[in-house]
Amino acid sequence: MSSKNTRLRFALVALAVTVAGLAAAGPAAAAAPRTTAQTATVARTAAIPVDFVDLTTSPLPADTKGHKVTVTYRNDSAAPLTVAPQLLVESPDAGPFLAPSDLTVERRTAAGCWEPVELGTQTGTLFTDLTTAQRTLAPGATLTETYRVTVTTPGAQGTLHPRVALYA
């Protein structure tokens, strides 16, 4: 028997077992609360920023030296606040669009070492990931994140745009 026939037979058996299980469960399964799915939906919804605080932009340094960019934000509210620092590198409107290979971005760790940061790209804008940068700031606490940006492609042009994502 060929492996294609074996896979088809296995799929049919799995389908039959699933249908039999659903039929045996009857209306009780349909009426059961779906707390797991509801919890997952709530968790996904909470991960969407509700606002951004744009910080001062600057031109992308054209030399091949490392340049520090510091993102600072203070939680002035009376409640803890989930935030995420982000660094955008925007291409010129007229192009050429920047690619992640045009520069390196590193983040300073709490120990003072530099670790590489992967960049995403969309429509000519490079960006650092928000999901891995999320943290909760206590009332009155200040976030300070330092990045080092190094242009690796001579002549690359763009704008550094630091910002902070705010979550509900």
Folded structure, characterized:
There is one protein chain. The chain is of the alpha+beta class. The chain has 2 helices and 11 strands; from the N terminus they run H-H-E-E-E-E-E-E-E-E-E-E-E. Strands 1, 2, 4, 7, 8, 9 and 11 form a 7-stranded antiparallel sheet that branches. It has a 4-stranded antiparallel sheet with strand order 3-10-5-6, with no helix packed on it. A hairpin with a 5-residue loop joins strand 5 and strand 6.
Largest sheet: 7 strands, antiparallel
Distance between the termini: 57 Å
Give the overall pLDDT as a whole number.
80
Strand content: 35-45%
Briefly note the structural class of the backbone. Answer: alpha+beta
Shape: globular
- Work out the helicity level: 10-25%
- The radius of gyration is 24 Å
Question: Which regions are unreliable across 5 or more consecutive residues at pLDDT < 50?
Answer: 1-46
Order of helices and strands: HHEEEEEEEEEEE
In summary, what is this structure?
The protein has 2 helices and 11 strands, in the order ααβββββββββββ.
